[in-house]
Specification:
The complex is a heterodimer.
Chain A (H helix, E strand, L loop, with lengths): L3 E4 L2 E5 L4 E7 L7 E6 L6 E6 L5 E4 L2 E6 L4 E6 L8 E7 L10 E2 L3 E6 L1
Parallel strand pairs in A: 2-11
Antiparallel strand pairs in A: 1-3, 3-8, 4-5, 4-9, 6-7, 7-8, 9-10, 9-11
Chain B lengths: L3 E4 L2 E4 L5 E7 L5 E7 L5 E7 L6 E2 L7 E3 L5 E6 L8 E8 L6 E2 L3 E5 L1
Parallel strand pairs in B: 2-11
Antiparallel strand pairs in B: 1-3, 3-8, 4-5, 4-9, 5-6, 7-8, 9-10, 9-11
């Protein structure tokens, strides 16, 4: 079963707008939550990550918001640009488990129109 | 510095054929992973390795085997390919407490 649920499946935003992608998890042992960005024909690349001891992390135009009690976290892309058009995956893992295996969400295809 | 290199990039197989996908990393990473990516399902872990000579099952291991004889290489084998194994396969590696680095994938079609 999918332990990390991601929505929406696809998202269309105008240039300059805010893109918001949401994820929910079930396993309370998860303690590391990365977001990956994937362009067509390429592998995923780490975008930004958060640990549950903080509620928000910001890097440039990208912000993760984390709600531990609700077991939810989200990615906000401010001032979205056409170059941000890609597929985004949330993921979760427990650092303590063997191999720190990542569990991925289903992915969100983001299109930013010029 | 090539990072994570996957070979081949594309392959078409017939049902029942066997093949091996190669993943090579030049970062001296301990951990290596094989995923498959299917539309609407994200990336699912097939097998992984926590060091040279070790392998372990992931979420979807059936129909696949792996070997990690050398630290830099992680091989994924399909002994008897099935159409359900048509997918894009990604390899990743990482060092302890560091994020995973992914290759650019192998696109595999099984007819």
């Amino acid at each position: 079963q999918q332990q990390v649920k991601q929505s929406p499946q696809s998202l269309i935003v105008q240039k300059g707008g805010i893109s918001i992608i949401n994820c929910a998890y079930e396993n309370t042992a998860f303690d590391y939550f990365p977001w990956y960005q994937q362009f067509p024909g390429k592998g995923p690349a780490l975008l930004i990550a958060i640990r549950p001891d903080v509620s928000e992390k910001k890097e440039g135009r990208f912000t993760i918001s984390f709600n531990k009690s609700a077991k939810q976290f989200s990615l906000h892309i401010m001032d979205s640009q056409p170059g941000d058009s890609a597929t985004y995956f949330c993921a979760a893992t427990s650092i303590q488990t063997s191999g720190s295996r990542l569990t991925f969400g289903e992915g969100t295809q983001l299109t930013v129109n010029p | 510095n090539a990072g994570v290199t996957q070979t081949p990039k594309f392959r078409v197989l017939k049902t029942g054929q066997s093949m091996t996908l190669l993943c090579a990393q030049d970062m001296n990473h301990e951990y290596m992973y094989w995923y498959r990516q299917d539309p609407g399902m994200g990336l699912r872990l097939i097998h992984y390795s926590v060091g040279e000579g070790t392998t372990a099952k992931g979420e979807v291991p059936d129909g696949y085997n792996v070997s990690r004889l050398k630290k830099q290489n992680f091989l994924l084998g399909l002994e008897s390919a099935a159409p359900s194994q048509t997918s894009v396969y990604f390899c990743a590696s990482r060092e302890n407490n560091q994020p995973q680095h992914f290759g650019d994938g192998t696109r595999l079609s099984i007819l």
